[in-house]
Amino acid sequence: MFLAGEWKNKSQVIEVDDPGTGEIIATVPKGTSEDMEEALAMAIDGKKVAANLTTKQRMDILVNTAKLVDENVEEAAQIIATEGIKTISEARSEASRAAETLRLAAEEARRLTGETINFDQVSGNADRHGYTFRFPLGIIGAITPFNDPLNLVVHKIAPAIASGNAVILKPATQTPLSALWLTEKFLEAGLPAKVMSTITGRGSEVTPPMLESRDVRMITFTGGLEAGEKIAKSAGLKKLSMELGSNSPFIVFKDANLEKAAEAAVDGAYGAGGQNCLSVQRIFVHKDVEQSFTDKFIQKAKQLVTGDKKSEDTDMGPVISEKEAKSIMTNIENAKEQGAEVLLGGTHRDAFVSPTLLSNVPKSSTLYEDEIFGPVATLHTFSDYDEAIRSANEVNFGLQAGVFTNHLQTAHKAAYDLHVGGVIINDSSDFRVDAMPFGGVKGSGINREGVHNAIMDMTEPRVVSFKIESQ
User: Fold this and answer.
1) Active-site hit among 100, 108, 243, 449
2) Which whole-number Å values give the CA distances from 346 to 145, 337, 362, 463, in the listed order?
3) Residue 71 catalytic?
4) What family is reported (predicted)?
5) Could you say which of 38, 94, 277, 449 is catalytic?
6) Whole-prediction pTM value?
């Protein structure tokens, strides 16, 4: 791991396995709280180094890192697909997106400006003029998840560097290799060693000093709601940016293009094995088109190829572990005991859960109320607009929603009535470009990611006022 300016090994290690095969593919150091204390001490110097980098230097580092990622997309994709849950085609897409996110951060570094202030808008201040500029917070603590082990790391590290901060990264225990690979590329691109540490290990053992430190001025975290609540309680008076998952609704009105809606729903529900915070989980279909939509959905879902992640023909890989697969199956079985009907799938082998669709799922079921983070969707019907919106809003999540309709007024009304961070019209909830504001409401988190928004969060404005003396 890259700790306090140098690469370090430790006698105690954590095994990294391929969830598709169970094979141990690597070991990484098992970090401790003492390691984090060492990283924090270095970061105090590192924040000064980072703040003194010129805009041009920050841009060059980010552009050069993007170039290195672009030149090594296949290498990055192989790492992503081996340590994680993505197919090789999904992994290539993520690696390419990571390079684009780095370029976005370089562009936003150029745009990090302030504004002039008209102090003479108040009587007695005609002799004053001034402006604001944005300055870096200092040290950013970043904690990232397993499902996008490269691009979500970039979404936290690149804005921190673009805005002149030092950063300490704790990548997901299951998928640390992508983050370590990226750290190498940052250093190769010219990032000063003191500016960044990447510490591997278990979050409960590594992160407490970072969360509690007064020197760390912001924690950016992507993960589960329970973990996010614990972090918020430990972090104290510092900025927080949290994306805590979802239970995304997908609404199909009766005037929708059902062929496209079914295709989008299948992609959204089963892409990355359903292990995406934006995954389609609760599908609401107008009762008049339920059967037609369901038939199309099942037909398309049955065409998905599940298996070897490295095969070019595979559409869906495993969930992150066999333990997680069994947990998903327990939720399915519990829903069945409460009256749910399996329309598709509902089986598992090792860490592979088949694409699953259930109907008649009670609202008291975990499949309806919670984030499942697996290839499981539930199907529900509604009679009118108000019922659809009410059902979509009634859980404690609100990241994004998908809405299919050809009626412009319905689309505009839904955009205002859905209590979420993003409303995606005529597409699934599983849509994101890396430049857009990204985040949710309720249990889905606080604040917004997306490079520009992250940079705003990682900086603060300072007011400067000049009083002009009379000659």
Assistant:
1) 243
2) 26, 13, 17, 59
3) no
4) Belongs to the aldehyde dehydrogenase family.
5) 277
6) 0.96
Q: Give 234's pLDDT tier (boundaries 50, 70, 90).
A: very high
Domains of the chain: total: 2
Residue located via tokens 């006698």: 11
What residues pair up with 29 in beta bridges, in sequence order?
13
**What does the pLDDT average to over 154-166?**
98
Model pLDDT for residues 165-189, shown as the tens digit of each residue: 999 999 999 999 999 999 999 999 9
Rounded to an integer, what distance in angstroms lies between the CA atom of residue 243 and that of residue 440?
7
Residue 471 pLDDT class (50, 70, 90 cuts): low
Q: Dig out the tokens for 61 from the structure.
A: 């580092």
Whether residues 59 and 153 fall in one domain? yes
The Cα 283–Cα 334 span in angstroms is: 19
Is 80 exceeded by the pLDDT of residue 243?
yes
* Spatial separation of the C-alpha atoms in residues 111 and 55, rounded to whole Å: 10
Check if 369 is active-site: no
Does 319 share its domain with 267? yes
In the Cβ-directed half-sphere of 402, how many Cα atoms lie within 13 Å?
A: 33
d(CA 241, CA 232) in angstroms, rounded, equals 10
